[in-house]
Fold each of these.
Amino acid sequence: MSNALMIVGATTLGALATEPPKGPSDLSTLAHIDSKYATVLSTSLNAGRQNLYAGHRSHSSHRSHSSHRSHSSGSGSSYRSYTPPATYTPPPSTYTPPPSTYTAPASRTRSGASSSGSPVKHQSLESTPSATSDGMHKAQTLQPSTLAAPDSERRDADQLKLLIMRVQAALYSKGYDPGAIDGILSPQTQSALRMFQLTYGIKVTGTMTTPTLDALGVRL
Amino acid sequence: MLPLDTKARVPMSTGSPLLKVVDLRDFSTSSLPVSRMALDLRATPDFAAATELLDLPWGALLPPDGHKWPATVPWVSLEGDSRITKSGDVIELDPIRQRVAVRYRRGDNGNVLFATERCNSYCLMCSQPPRDVEDGWRVRQLLDLIELVDPDEPSLAISGGEPTLLGDGLVDVVKRCSETLPDTHVHILSNGRLRDPLLHAKFDRLHPNLSWGVPLYGDHYGLHDYVVQSEGAFAETLRGLYALQAARQRVEIRVVLVRPTFERLAQLARFIWRNLPFVEHVALMGIEPVGFAKAHQRELWADPADYSEILRDAVDILDMAGIPVSLYNLPLCSIERSLWGHAAKSISTWKNDYLPACSTCSVKERCGGFFSWITPAWTSRAVAPILDA
């Protein structure tokens, strides 16, 4: 799934980007040749970790980005202009389940057990080892209930947002300009990513591919 | 000298009081949860820090000077010298007293895990006078702190008080160090007194790079027990030293050069050679003029200039025994040039200063200088700039 996303992401980007490297320019060819001689850690930072975010390219595709912690939807607002939310809007109490095409990720359907039938508490959908070690938890996580979905979706969205912020912070501290550190993969951030990838001889995608995260020092 | 704590604006909080200070770079590479971090934005321009960033569930935020944020943001502002903390440090927030203390300073040579205020000795020159308080809570705090220390930290000391009074708590602390900081050398400063015969054995193979610094103040029980103001201490310390050796621990002997000890330093060196040949290092240390030492200046002060022959003899004996020996807290101008090779820059940066006389000295860079609380009564008459080195 992530592979498909990445390809779509890369092609769309090529079309939409503000300053795309048009074809393999001399510079990127050079960078590609150079990369063979670059220092490589014996084990890369994110070796063996699954990068679900590699294909993520913009905020517009995810409704979940309006997470409960970001009451300001606009990007780029700075702390000078910080204003506390006048009224706090709690997360919606009634949740509309995601579109009927929702399919649970493959890793969760693997064991195929049925729901234990116990009252479903807010249970993480993430198949972390600790959660799946317990039989009952396993059964619960298998059944994406209407209650569990928004929580986990929000958690995933927060995770993604945090990862983008860390990537933006890394770009910023390495002298690139990703714009405001706001957790949104804005055109400016994508542009900074491409500049970074070009310099480091990484495949230029404008997205958070694993080699890019490794080079930035960002752990998944 | 950079102080270790300061007055500050500290919000009331229910989170952990220990926080890792991170700038944007360290934030991007850290795998700690943001609730254990204090984001340092003091050097970050306005445009970069979006509301979304500030809204993460930070342990704390350090705003640029003069900025004030709403009470919903857990911001901390430090009074005084802004260099008191920087990215990589670990700070402790004290909302009751409105203070911030630095518990770990990245790049400092003297980071200490403070184990306890209690001690079973009562040394005449104690720089950290003990208090008889129940502070077993420190164990849990140290376990927290260890997780926030840089994994590439070269060296940490565990000190107090007497760390072995934590009993198994000390074993837990060292174990956590070996799990989280396997590359960090850990040095336990202990009086070595054996109380629980089983404790020292628990350190066998517990940590890949652990050593002990144990003080010995005389070649005779009367002298040692007098200096530590505790009857039976000499015998207990020797038993402890042999227990450490039995547990395959690396041991350093530390000798503070108080006058009665200085007078018998050559005999002490010979005692170590004959009875403790397994020690890997001997440190001969100038007095730190603080704590109890100030009350006993007359009894304790020994100008190294008056004891240069004894000092050279002691160093020679240990050299002959093949035991490495270092001189701590002794300015180069107060000792013979033949001993300069043994002198170390030993004073932690937060309490290290130089005297006005040092400004023209040609070996100032090599010299350890003085404790910040030096007074004329504790200054060797030999102190003078060295111009011809």
Amino acid sequence: MRVNEEQTTISVALEDLTREVERLHADGYRLVQIGCTDIGGSYEINYSFDKDYRFRNLRLTVGPETEVPSISGTYWGAFVYENEMHDLFGIPVTGINIDFKGTFIRSAEKYPFSVTRRGGDPCRNA
Amino acid sequence: MGLFEMTKTVLRNLAGGPATRRYPAVPARTSPLTRGHVVFNPAACRSCGLCSRRCPCEAIRIEKEAKIWEIDRLRCAACGDCVEGCPFGGLTMEQTYLPPVVEHTVERHTITYVKPEKPAKKPADESAGA
Amino acid sequence: MPERIVVPFGPQHPVLPEPIHLDLVLEDETVVEAVPSIGYIHRGLEQLVQKREFPEYVYVAERICGICSFMHALCYCQGVEHIMGIEVPDRARYLRTIWSECSRLHSHLLWLGLFADAMGFENLFMRSWQLRESVLDVLEDTTGGRVIQGTCKIGGVRRDIEPEKLGEMHRALDSFEEKCRDLTDVFLNDETVKYRLRGLGVVGKDAAYALGAVGPTVRASGVRVDLRETGYAAYGDLDFRPVVETTGDCYARCAVRAGELFTSIDLIRQAIDAMPDGPLDVKVKGMPDGEYFSRVEQPRGEVVHYLRGNGTKHLVRSRIRTPTLANIPMLVKMLPGAQLADVPVVVLSIDPCISCTER
């Protein structure tokens, strides 16, 4: 049995994020992942949703210290991704339902993947 | 549920012996494809450096002028990429695993490949005759 | 007002295959709240993509996890192949399917053994792992490695399975299926096992879907989500049905995985019967430029590899979202109400693979 899988990506602005997410939630989409990439000096955050194998992706581009509102009011399980994003990249996310305040992923260096990390080499290979 | 089910199971287990292999007294089960460790043939290596470039763990180092080929066994993951990549058959994969070591040393080999002498080219007027 | 105490569970615990830390808030013996904490095994594998060229990264992707290793490599290869527009030959797709299903059999048998051990039933643990040895022998004979296969590469597969070996596997599947039936009979019909598992960690259908859980954990609550239905690799040509249960407790999760054993055996039989001839791989030319979300059904659920390239040998970003990370919110919702002695069983019922979560 084969179901066609389509992937669509739309860019969204910071103010419209909560509204778009609520619209997808009312439509019956489930949250797949929230991922962060650093391009140049800013972060690109991808919010991925899926329903019946139809894949929708919301893309948000923010600078290093911009505060991002949490979507855990709509999707309860989003706290895992948002805490991880905060602990690894240093993006301040406001209003997470279970906020670990930096202790979710305990690492030797604070915000190891952020664009402003010290040293130039992304991975110190011994 | 029949009678004496447990007794039958116990007797079957007693008669059968242990279900595991007594490794290392008995050698481990291997198949012809098992990736154990990489073996280097110094006489076939032409120092092209393909194995060193393909290694995903950066375990192989070559010094062309000093004719040294070294492998760091503790970095090698036995993936077999170098064996596939060597165009001259200088590397093979053996099936046995290497025993554990207590100190970290790097294995060095001296490359002994000698380029075969090409027969000396005769000047044209000598070979053109008859 | 009963007193509340906090008991740390993990990171070292005999029942956990990998380290995860949970702070359990208890009132007498009942768990009231659970607070997870991860980060014990973070190796920074996503950053390694900037150091390893994209064909070499397959080896890193394989070693993210030992239990679901082939499917990580498959997901990565599919992602890069989609970005570069490479079409994999048919024989390679069927071989990948066979190895994926062997991986799934091996993973579910491992999980059944660990689950029996968590309940205290050690003999059943030994029997499950003894059965798992025959799957590992097949994997070793066909790929060279018991746990890390090393056969998937961008453009196809590195190794072939000869027709004699395929015939041998097909014949061995009958007796293997017989032994699986005996084993799952104990898991599903034994009185003590049922007494331990029924009614434990119940999550309803809507709650499970809203929490974003994936895999057998969510299929046990009645939600029918199985990525093999999208038809990647050779699944589009094979006929199968996802296993779905409705009760949503630990017994249902065990039943889903036991049922998937038989689906896998059936899929391997179908793939061997329909195996086409042809080349094993295609030559890879050029560099990846673009992005793609590649999704595959691992034994634990849906894994997403987000890959992005910009035309150079090194990919810019690889983001891996593993199924256990999506199941952690469901674990946090499942634990309140359980007794302290049942916590290992509940934690293990989502099949935690923390080395994947913490790449």
